[in-house]
Amino acid sequence: MARLGIDATSVAPHGKGISRVQRRTVEALRALDRHELVVFARHPAELPGSVPVDERPALRWEQLAMPRAMRRHGLDAMLTWTERLPLGGGGRYVVWLFEPPTHRIRQNRIAGAPPYQRASDLVTLALWRRSLRGAAHVFAGSRATADALDRDAPVLYPGVDAEFAPSERRKEPYVFAILSGDPREDVEGALRVFRSVRGRLPFRGVTLRVAGGFRGPDEAGVEYLGRVPDGRLVELYQHASAYLETSRYEGFGFQALEALACGTPVVATAVTSLPEAVDGGGALCPPGGDECLVSELARLFEDAEHAERLRARGLEHAATFRWERVAETIAAAVDRVAGP
Hints:
By secondary structure, the protein is of the alpha/beta class. Helices cover 43% and strands 16% of the residues. It folds into two domains: 3-159 and 322-338, Rossmann fold (3-Layer(aba) Sandwich); 174-318, Glycogen Phosphorylase B (Rossmann fold, 3-Layer(aba) Sandwich), CATH 3.40.50.
């Protein structure tokens, strides 16, 4: 039985996104029980039985401590989500990459990131393509990401957690959005689209509920909820009449897919991975296409049969994203990499 290390250093209490992906991957691989797992975590209480990682910053763990851990624990392979693999120390690495770092680095530069972050970004730019060429196997989290890489990278989509499921409760007349204030989200566009929808449907009492770290100007019909726990997040997805996604760039559309799994149609921009996440469970519009977004959102409130068709398609699409399939696919790659 091969010994597989898992770099789960992004797992954190109440973590979402890549934290959730790493956590569920560990759980799914443990349930599969095909390999002997050694899990490395910065918050070991979140993953019982894991090996604590204290090295800071992340670059020190990736370049120095991770290859030492490979040798110390006699690992046949290491599964990681970083694009900065060790330049020395050997070892076989299986990488699952959700987006190339170039867009993130460009946004950091525009936002005026602090000196350490800028220095880290320069190291990443120097390393990441060479690093991935040295990986034993690379998975891309979406077709959009695979197309951005200069090596063969089969697409591996994440699963959807079981708690993201539809409710029998009747839908409420609100649009749901998750916004952090990241420039890629086009928060101004989301607010602008909502205002137009509210003006088009003045007698329906349509509101916008926003979860996440972003808080914009107080205005009629908009409720800023801040960061919400997972249980509340599921309820917000379930009871919304629509989920609005105005992002200009997504390595993978986690939130759009979670909305579909909860039985809520999505109206989104047709950029990067969002068409893959939404598929037939919603409407896709060009970035900056306010008229299209307004029209498609309004139609979900005006045409119940159309909304129900999208809801059914979305549930069918979301059901194909299973953590069991993720574990089987990773395990098969590890078998090939580790050898007999």
